[in-house]
Inverse folding.
């Protein structure tokens, strides 16, 4: 490794690299990870700005036109109600990506706060908090999410509430994903809190919260980022799973999960209805997983020795 | 060891209690009831059913009846103190009685589970076997031939496998092998030919994970000192593999198998739906949508107990494989 650094920067070997610069250099050399990043960027642009450019509405039903194979007006064909599939995939992408990102953010906030508190204070509190995590792990949470969705569905029907299921998905999926994050953060904080720089911060009178948020969490950020990157595809998968079962995003909205479910019903005659949404979901998950792996190789000191 | 097992089983009791209680109240407090969608029943019949199942009783009374062991439901021969005739004083899950199903008339939840679970475990077991074989073999090859075409090929395939959800893979397999090539039946569960597609659909993602874990675990172990010692002693490579590296290298796979089996159970909900397999997962989804309280509770409780047992088995297995693990 030293050899590489020298050859990259002849004459300035004394200049150090920060962890982040170093990680970025590693990541840049990982071609698959960079390709994944490009794919994800393209998908994001496609989903966010695409609908303005296709010239079709995602929910404009045209029964006279009906279901058509991919053609020059509709690059990915139309569905049974004559809606442009590409526009629907773009809208579905917005929803799927939004669920992935927001639910991950929720799990990130809960997990980091919880794990850091447990790890920093240690002792009895830590024991108690981690036992709770153990208990939560033993619960088949997908069942609880399903029951929760049915519960809120009932409330909506009775009181005429107008909440989108999607907000519920943000919270429900985020709330079940924080457990591993809490464990990772706790482990990191536990090993960091005895270090000299924390002692130094103590001695100049920094408060506990200040130490946790200013000193411990930033130093544990590597594994946290890696795990978050891998949480996004996991959450997107769960959203698609729930929507596939008809419990997630509701019509006329569409996510990739509902599009796949609709496509699966019609695929014997109109295979493109499942092939395109499946392709988009698969490509997104594939890229996110590769990027997550690349980030781990770049950031996680444990796998660095290879 | 025995103490460890007893402690773990005791610790499972509050967990199961929390699950039952949370599920019970979530299901019951949600508006809408099991008879909403069955518009066929007349109001009198519904009133009869409500009395029979004690649906208008206070919630705590229903809850305690469900939990058992005392039957507080006056409509079904509950204890005299609650207005019943005392002909059936015991009931509830503590007596092993999961109650009657609301949706499937005249059937108990216990009998539905007894019927659906063997199918689910059959599917799950085959998928797991498929995943272990199709995961470990490429994983081992990739580790032993690191940085060759074998390695890159199998790891790319594994990454692809991790990224394709089973509800995309299933329909695509049906599209290719049933609807285009006519090799295999697209749905149902009537014989070995019917088993193939659901098994692959359910097992593929786990095969991919196992391949990655096997490779990672093996690569970690072959760098360790005891392997170098074994090699220095002059042991043949095959013996080093079987006696030394495999044992440590497969630990990550073993610890993955516990949660994987759990996710296999939830994953099979979707696979059972796609292929119309008459397993427990389908009953759960139907039950949740139809507000079949007892059926949902029974299935959740049953799966949770299974999950806890499986985790315990994995932990015990772990102790046999890794001498560094002790139970205290």
């Amino acid at each position: 490794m030293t050899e590489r650094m020298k050859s990259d920067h002849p004459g300035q070997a004394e200049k150090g690299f920060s962890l982040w610069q170093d990680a970025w250099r590693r990541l840049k050399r990982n071609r698959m990870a960079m390709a994944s990043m490009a794919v994800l960027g393209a998908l994001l642009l496609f989903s966010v700005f695409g609908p303005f450019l296709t010239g079709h509405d995602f929910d404009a039903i045209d029964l006279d036109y009906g279901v058509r194979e991919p053609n020059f007006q509709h690059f990915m064909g139309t569905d049974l109600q004559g809606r442009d599939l590409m526009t629907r995939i773009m809208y579905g992408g917005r929803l799927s990506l939004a669920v992935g990102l927001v639910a991950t953010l929720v799990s990130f906030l809960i997990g980091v706060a919880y794990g850091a508190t447990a790890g920093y204070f240690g002792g009895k509190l830590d024991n108690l908090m981690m036992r709770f995590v153990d208990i939560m792990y033993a619960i088949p949470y997908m069942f609880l999410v399903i029951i929760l969705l049915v519960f809120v569905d009932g409330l909506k029907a009775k009181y005429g509430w107008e909440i989108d299921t999607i907000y519920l998905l943000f919270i429900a999926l985020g709330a079940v994903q924080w457990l591993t994050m809490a464990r990772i953060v706790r482990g990191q904080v536990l090993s960091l809190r005895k270090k000299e720089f924390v002692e130094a911060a103590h001695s100049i009178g920094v408060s506990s919260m200040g130490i946790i948020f200013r000193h411990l969490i930033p130093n544990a950020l590597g594994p946290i980022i890696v795990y978050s990157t891998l949480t996004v595809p996991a959450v997107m998968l769960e959203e698609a799973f729930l929507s596939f079962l008809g419990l997630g995003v509701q019509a006329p909205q569409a996510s990739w999960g509902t599009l796949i479910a609709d496509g699966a019903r019609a695929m014997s005659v109109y295979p493109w209805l499942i092939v395109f949404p499946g392709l988009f979901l698969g490509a997104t998950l594939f890229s996110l997983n590769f990027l997550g792996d690349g980030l781990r190789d770049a950031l996680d000191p444990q796998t660095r020795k290879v | 060891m025995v103490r460890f097992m007893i402690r773990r089983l005791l610790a499972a009791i509050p967990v199961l209690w929390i699950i039952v209680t949370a599920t019970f109240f979530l299901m019951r407090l949600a508006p809408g009831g099991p008879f909403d969608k069955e518009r066929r029943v007349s109001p009198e019949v519904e009133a009869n059913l409500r009395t029979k199942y004690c649906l208008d009783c206070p919630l705590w009374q229903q809850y305690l009846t469900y939990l058992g062991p005392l039957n507080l439901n006056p409509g079904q021969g509950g204890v005299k103190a609650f207005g019943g005739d005392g002909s059936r004083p015991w009931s509830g899950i503590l007596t092993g009685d999961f109650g009657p199903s609301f949706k499937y008339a005249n059937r108990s939840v216990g009998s539905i589970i007894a019927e659906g679970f063997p199918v689910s475990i059959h599917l799950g077991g085959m998928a797991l076997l498929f995943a272990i074989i199709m995961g470990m073999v490429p994983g081992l090859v990739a580790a032993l031939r690191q940085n060759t075409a074998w390695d890159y090929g199998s790891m790319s395939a594994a990454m692809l496998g991790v990224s394709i959800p089973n509800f995309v893979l299933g329909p695509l397999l049906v599209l290719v092998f049933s609807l285009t090539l006519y090799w295999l039946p697209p749905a149902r569960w009537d014989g070995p030919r019917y088993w193939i597609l659901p098994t692959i659909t359910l097992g593929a993602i786990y095969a991919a994970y196992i391949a990655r874990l096997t490779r990672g675990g093996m690569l970690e172990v072959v760098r360790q000192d005891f392997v170098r010692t074994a090699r220095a002693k002059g042991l043949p490579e095959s013996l080093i593999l079987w006696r030394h590296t495999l044992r440590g290298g497969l630990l990550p796979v073993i610890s993955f198998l516990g949660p994987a089996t759990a996710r296999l159970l939830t994953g099979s909900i979707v696979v059972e739906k796609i292929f119309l397999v008459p397993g427990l997962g389908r009953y759960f989804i139907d039950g949740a949508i139809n507000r079949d309280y007892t059926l949902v509770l029974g299935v959740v409780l049953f799966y949770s107990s299974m999950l806890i047992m499986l985790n315990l088995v994995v932990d015990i297995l772990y102790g046999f494989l890794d001498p560094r693990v002790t139970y205290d």
Q: What stands out?
A: The two ends of chain B are 8 Å apart (CA to CA). Chain B has two domains: 2-95, 109-321. Chain B touches chain A through 48 residues (CB under 8 Å). Chain B has twelve helices and no strands.
